[in-house]
Amino acid sequence: MFEQLGLIGCGLMGGSFALALKRAGLVKRIVGYSKSPSTTERARQMGVIDVEAPSALLAVSGADIVLLAVPVSATEASFKAIRHLLTPNTLVMDVGSTKRDVVDAARRVLRDHVGCFVPAHPITGKEVSGVEHADVNLYAGKQVILTPIERTFTVQLQKAVDVWTALGCHVVKMSPQSHDAAYAAVSHLPHLIAFAMINGIAGQDHGKEYMSLAGPGFRDFTRIAASDPKMWRDILVANREELLDQSRIFQKTLQSLENLITSGDGDALESLIEQASETRANWRIASQKSHK
Ligand SMILES: NC(=O)c1ccc[n+]([C@@H]2O[C@H](COP(=O)([O-])OP(=O)(O)OC[C@H]3O[C@@H](n4cnc5c(N)ncnc54)[C@H](O)[C@@H]3O)[C@@H](O)[C@H]2O)c1
Ligand SMILES: O=C(O)C(=O)C[C@]1(C(=O)O)C=C[C@@H](O)C=C1
């Protein structure tokens, strides 16, 4: 049981974590801070946090667990704001979608205290942001990737595993580099393609009309294009090298399909579609249940 969660960033991910931690009976008090005071106030009114803090430092004052749930570009500034109050016993985690940049910021800013930081990335979310969409069940049954570094304290890492497990998550550990390579392929590229697809269609003369005619295939394929622009700007730029590698692979694969369409090679086209269809039909989202 933790005494106090210091929550920096009372939005979708942070708010959902606060609700889940409280429901699990793992924390006595939640003190929250968001950049905009009206967000912090809203989080308290909604019962997501118990106390509003006027600064990140004050949210962390007295906290034995700290969660950074801010856009990845705000990680370094957040670490700077709280580093003076961190003790070797504090468990500090984040939920950022990229890990190499976050870990680099932690090394630069936290220095001797970097061991109490356990980088985390829950593989769950929504295309809507803000505390209004916080959901006590967001993390249940989902994967959480932890990317400890050589200096991460064993005790803190175990505490992090225990917290996420208690919230019903399946914990996976990997290096920040492997994380960023994998999520460039299965999260960042799909978002990039969804943004491009919507802009490509909406930018055409008859784009609006076409979109008014679209059905569930279009809806399912493009849901994530409605995601928060600033959050995704940060993610795509932070993981640009891995993302651009994946984008090149995608473009080559698309080109191969186009070539077969151009030449009218139906058999070869069918065989590539069959490959994709079988792969996707056999794919299941990883969850705690499927790992049992
Ligand atoms: N939304 C998703 O699907 C999803 C999934 C997994 C991980 N993430 C990661 O979670 C993090 C938070 O995303 P979210 O969806 O909760 O966004 P959100 O917009 O709902 O919440 C972010 C909160 O951080 C606050 N904030 C912004 N800059 C700040 C700063 N400098 N100091 C303090 N507070 C600040 C905002 O006011 C907001 O309350 C991001 O790093 C994102 O990459 C998001
Ligand atoms: O469900 C969504 O809307 C998401 O995009 C969630 C999603 C993803 O699967 O790509 C988005 C970003 C994350 O860092 C983790 C999960």
TrEMBL record:
Keywords, comma-separated and alphabetical: Oxidoreductase
Domain of life (superkingdom): Bacteria
Every Prephenate/arogenate dehydrogenase domain range: 3-291
InterPro entries in the record: 6-PGluconate_DH-like_C_sf (IPR008927), NAD(P)-bd_dom_sf (IPR036291), PDH_C (IPR046825), PDH_N (IPR046826), Preph/Arog_dehydrog (IPR050812), Prephen_DH (IPR003099)
Gene3D superfamilies in the record: 6-phosphogluconate dehydrogenase C-terminal like domain, NAD(P)-binding Rossmann-like Domain
Official protein name in the record: Prephenate dehydrogenase
Naturally occurring in which organism (per UniProt): Polaromonas aquatica
